[in-house]
Amino acid sequence: MTRLAIISGGLREPSSTRLLADRLEAAVRTALEAHPGEQVESSFVELRPLGRAVMDATLTGFPTGPLEDAFETVASADGVIAVTPAFNASFSGLFKCFFDVLPEETFTDMPVLIGATGGTERHSLVLEHALRPMFSYLHAIVSPRGVYAATDDFGAQTNAALGQRITNAATDFARLVQGCGTRQRRDAFTEELTAMQRLLGGSPGGGA
Amino acid sequence: MSDMQFGVFTVGDVTQDPTTGTTPSEAERIQATLAIARKAEEVGLDVFATGEHHNPPFVPSSPTTLLGHIAAQTERIILSTSTTLITTNDPVKIAEDFSVLQHVSGGRADIMLGRGNMGPVYPWFGQDIRQAVPLTVENYGLLRRLWREEVVDWEGEFRTPLRGFTLAPRPLDGVPPFVWHGSIRTPDIAELAAYYGDGFFANHIFWPASHTKRMVQLYRRRFAHHGHGSAEQAIVGLGGHVFMRRNSQDAVEEFRPYFDNAPVYGHGPSLEEFSSRTPLTVGSPAQVIEKTLGFREYVGDYQRQLFLVDHAGLPLKTVLEQLDLLGEEVLPVLREEFAAGRPADVPAAPTHAALLRARRPEPTPVSGATDKRRE
């Protein structure tokens, strides 16, 4: 079984960001389940209801209730689809803040499919200038093709073009997730502890 | 002194009182700190601990100077730190300063070590932040030897070697100050404390109980693993943060502006939300008693409870009233309740006298009994 976590940073209801996230999830599921016996379990993390919790965690340093659950959902996934609206040539502030408070190592070795929405197609490089570098920094494995959807893309005549981009990106990502297999969770707590044990083990006259 | 110690720990911040707009001078803040320490002894508290900071708006950059002065004005209270920076202070100087403090205070000094969390401090003292963890391990290893060995030959990575060095003065009665390792969030400090069989102090405040529980459990498990006794015999301290008035609602109303503007608290979750998620207790003495007794449920029977009572610009008069309430209404109940049901094999809080007794050979050896304490 493959566990997918889908992070949607849309702020309005209904949200075109969520719409793109849904279509990406469906396409990835189809691509993965094309393999006999493969099952996909998807969990959505909507950031808007977590808005206050994210800002509280930014200020206090610790997450509470539903935000902790969201962290757990992401950390236990085998692959993540992350979609944000484009604001001022970048991701939305809430989207960035969520990753700022996420525990370290959560994204290490995580396959990620990036997506973004915006008013016009002129912002499409936000995927390459904002999302991809952040996920690279987090040591994620970012799928080569992301999907950007402008308002026009959701119009009836051009829908086929967006559909094709979604299918292409989802096919790439499904191969990536399959190749990576079930993900080994990384845990900064345990890693720090192990590092200290190693240091003490090597310190002269340590146990005295 | 009873099995458990209660005290206060101060950060030493100079903060504007948000209700009056007045900010104490450094001189006033230092005098207030001294008054708080004297009052702590007067109301029957067991421990006064000061932080160490090297930048404004904090005043305690030289803790043993402060504690030495307090030692001269008090009789009984234990003087400690929260924390002494094991990374940026030279271990030779820490060993000297705390040996002297032991002597001038008549064995009322112990020490809580920490890494510090301010990156810029490291270069002020010629150290490299990138080496914080190995520096902690090396410096502490040396500090232990300085207090325990008459002549120290030592080589390490981060300071010049020592050749035939003898610490002067030697620790009082040859017993090193008890060492606590203080930690807010990192598990490696719990491991360090467990490895040496030292005390582990979880800062506790500002963070949810679940985090503290995990850290203390880890420390206890590793304490046993390293052969210092059972997990229940590990030496645990906790922080706490209280503001009291006899009437609960008065406490909330009076403290709210301080909470809302405090650098560590303000502008995020509300006072009520923070109180429900962390050890912060703003209310009546009965509420403080109830919440504090609850700490035991997730860390086990422990040895030291320190309260933060003097930050965020609270005026000295208010802080002294807090100490009166602690001494008169809270402390007697806490002492009695914590003692009730405390298993006999849970060690008492460490004192110089107890460490000295433990060091002396047993007059009549009891067959089958082994003393698992190291010093």
TrEMBL record, chain A:
Domain of life where this protein originates: Bacteria
Listed InterPro entries: CE1759_FMN_reduct, Flavoprotein-like_sf, FMN_Rdtase-like_dom, NAD(P)H-dep_FMN_reductase
Residue span(s) of domain NADPH-dependent FMN reductase-like: 3-151
Alphabetical UniProt keywords: Flavoprotein, FMN, Oxidoreductase
MF-aspect GO terms: oxidoreductase activity
The keyword Coiled coil belongs to this UniProt entry's keyword annotation: no
NCBIfam families given in the database record: LLM_duo_CE1759
Protein's name in the database: NADPH-dependent FMN reductase
Organism: Streptomyces oceani
